[in-house]
């Protein structure tokens, strides 16, 4: 709770800084503030407490994910400095929106009450709609915001409808009570209906197939920094929330219900990957590969209740790899109209550091050992095998090497010696280099010492 | 000596090479490789005097994963091959202009590190990590420093990577399944597991795909010849000399003891595949015009026989396989080095454009001759001992296997001698051909001496590996 309040205060301070004309201070202040909050959250990770009649419940699960979200936000805020160079007068708005988004994300993993869950979801979504359309004069950005807003609010509506049905069935908004009632008594059919609607709403936010159609367009049109937020922070938040909701609502569901979820997982994995193969735009490629990563993370649903460390590990591995990849993308395509993969040609020569960072990020996403992504996949696969979902794992494996195919294509292009292009060196703002390097270092360190993260849950 | 020192030496060697700058990279890499060789030698001496260098420390508590290294005779023999060949491979490009030398040699050293790790690891997970790690450096070596145009080799290297990576993932699933059963990845826990015959069958197959691609066994060999051709010669040497031994070694260390019933059941099928590889490789080699592709296919024939020997499940077959792995490693590196020397002088890889070298370069011709004889398996060379054991092991299973497997010697003699005749004798090419210089002499000399010395006196090596093989066979039974 203190974490949430502190972030809220920080966001308001950012807005005040705007009023008293301290724009230059906004980013340093936010980063330092968030670092402090991160430290506080990590130190109090084992504190389990409920606030305001179980509205807000902090558990190890929520604390761990909140720390991850805060860490990701630090990266995003730090990237804002160079990204919004041309619109520096609005920097306070952008930064405070990101902080509000972070509050929404934290509410979504820490809720104890359906009302709080919905509030978190809306805080997150609305800030995101604004950020998507932030590039006002760009038609693509407008299109992206419009699409995301229409479809997203529709999904929110479905979630709300589901909450209402569950309230009708159980007479409670409290997630713990709902969970108890669901275990002890047999419930009317609209309980299952309500749970399904909430799950569908969340699957939309996760961009799981067949609710994924908005993702590539929205990702491509949105300003790249917003895409970064969507594909790292928001995706991870949505998955964590989906997991938490499933743990609480789905334990009395019949086998066939789980099979449907497994089926969605498999098609999410496969469709995302197959669509990624043919992309020539890097943002779309990362969007589709993000869809398949959502599928990997949904594997955690095969072990409701015991998968949280594994899910957390994968989420960390994926989001930092995404962060590194998008940082390089921003550095490389900052002056381009669009983000074609061909703009990465010869990056190994033009800027070796960025090329190495992107290689590490992509190899990690593809699941090559020592990088964190490999261990993430390994933990989820072993959990799924333990629970007897061997078919699912085989699909996971097949998709792993499909994904390696298109990640390698990008890597090859970077190290290609295309003599004819013969481009000059690529100058990258120092902050991008630092952030990319830190993200890549995190991928390696977390890969070498997975216990660092897994032990957060013991 | 602690076994981890060897691994650390190689890893630090890779880093030091990277940071040493372009001028001194080769020297730094070479000195670390030589240190690693000396350390291996010390380890073997200690092993022979009864010292147990096994090492185990927890890496991840849950799932239960250890950094566990096992230095028995079998592992040490292959580590010896690795650390002996690495300095020779580095020397083989001495003085040659290589772009970004420091990165290149750092990758070579890193690959040596990963391969040593694969041979030593006795925790399935750690083994898998090393196994995959070895793939990354060779991918970049072949991609960035290879022959031909970038577009052409991009395709080849891509195929190689996807192929081997896909195979390994099935092995990973196999390991995860074993972990669920045993609650640990440790070698002996997996050995002592009681698996039903159906489980063994699937585990065997999941491992088999990974190894069959790496070795390669027919029909998983399609990546091989073009990758050997397109990779720079150093990469080809690493691939053919050491990396494919990872697959052969893993059959003996992991696959057979864990899934022995399935191995016995599937033996006929797999032996037939291996022997098809032997005959197919020999016949295709006959038709090759490019000398690197020629050696690639002859290597396919030889490793087919080695794999067949390993799958006989007899002590003799296994011993023959291990001895022949080492012999083949030495000989094939030597042969690819001769191809490189020929290319350096003539700037061609076509056999038809070579000839008349013996008069101009007698030292080179004699060394080449010995390597050719060793490749054929002439008595007195190390390969003879290996092939003899292999064929003997095969004949214990069924005489026909030995007969068909033996065609490798007959066909091998035919195509190798024909190749020698075309390249070294005759009068086709009039370009001057300088005899080997000092560094080339060292590389060829060391290989030739090893091949002949071990051919006459293989006892130290046989004694080193036999106890571990007997132990493994006891688990197979």
Short description:
The complex is a heterodimer of chains A (458) and B (477). Chain A has 458 residues and is mainly α.
Question: Can you describe this structure?
Answer:
The complex is a heterodimer of chains A (458) and B (477). Chain A is mainly alpha-helical and 458 residues long. Helices cover 75% and strands 1% of the residues of chain A. Chain A contains 19 helices and 2 strands. In chain A, strands 1-2 form a two-stranded antiparallel sheet. In chain A, a hairpin with a 4-residue loop joins strand 1 and strand 2 (56-58). In chain A, helix 4 runs antiparallel to helix 5, helix 12 packs antiparallel against helix 13 (308-332) and helix 15 (352-366) packs antiparallel against helix 17. The model of chain A has no long low-confidence stretch (mean pLDDT 89). By secondary structure, chain B is mainly alpha-helical. Chain B has a domain at 272-477. In chain B, 78% of the residues lie in helices and 2% in strands. Chain B has helices at residues 3-19, 21-48, 73-92, 101-120, 124-133, 135-145, 150-182, 187-191, 197-214, 224-230, 233-258, 260-286, 291-311, 315-346, 357-360, 362-376, 382-397, 399-424, 438-456, 459-476; strands at 55-60, 65-69. Chain B has a two-stranded antiparallel ribbon. In chain B, strand 1 and strand 2 (65-69) form a beta hairpin. At the A-B interface, helix 16 and helix 17 of A face helix 5, helix 6 and helix 7 of B. Chain B: This is NADH dehydrogenase subunit M. Chain B: GO terms for molecular function: NADH dehydrogenase (ubiquinone) activity; NADH dehydrogenase activity; ubiquinone binding. Chain B: It is a multi-pass membrane protein. Chain B: Belongs to the complex I subunit 4 family. Chain B: It comes from Myroides indicus.
